[in-house]
Amino acid sequence: LPADPGADASLCGMAATGASGTNAVRYGTMRPNVLNLRVVLPDGRLLHTAGPGRQARWEPGDRDGLGGGHAGTHSLAPCRKRAAGYDLTSLFVGSEGTLGFLTQATLRLHPLPEAAAVTTAAFP
Fold first, then answer.
1. How far apart are CA 78 and CA 89, in angstroms?
2. Contacts from 109-112 at CB under 8 Å and sequence distance 24+?
């Protein structure tokens, strides 16, 4: 998870506040990393911001992002680009619960870095 959660943080709470953290420069804040939200609206209706059951645009382990699928499984090929209506996911991320109550979040996950380095510097 790219955002740096606090001690008692929940994923939907982090999405509702548009949280960031120490890794925001590298991976971005919560807004670009939330793919879909399930929201309970003030009148009690249930809303999926990107459609119910939205899945990732690529298979886990698919390095080129072209999907492809294996025999016997469904293909997760990239979705066709479209701009039909508002981006409801981005609208609800950072709304702090004023537009609805976030109950489920589908997040984009990033792979672990291949290598990490630590440097210590002492100042007099």
1. 19
2. 109/1, 110/2, 110/27
C-beta separation of 81 from 18 below 8 A: no
> Look-up: residue for tokens 């609800």?
92
Asked if residues 88 and 47 have their Cβ atoms less than 8 Å apart, the reply is: yes
| Cβ atoms of residues 14 and 30 within 8 Å | yes
Biggest CA–CA distance in the chain, Å, is: 64
Q: What are the phi and psi torsion angles at 88 (to 5°)?
A: -65, -30
Identity (one letter) of the amino acid at 115?
A
Query: SS3 of 40, please?
Result: strand
CA quadruple 18, 34, 83, 91: dihedral sign: negative
Please report which residue ranges of the chain form alpha helices under DSSP H. Answer: 11-17, 24-27, 30-33, 88-92
Token pair recorded at residue 103: 């109950």
**Whether the predicted model's global pTM rises above the 0.85 cut:** no
pLDDT mean for each 10 residues of the chain (124 residues): 78 88 82 91 91 54 42 48 76 92 90 88 91
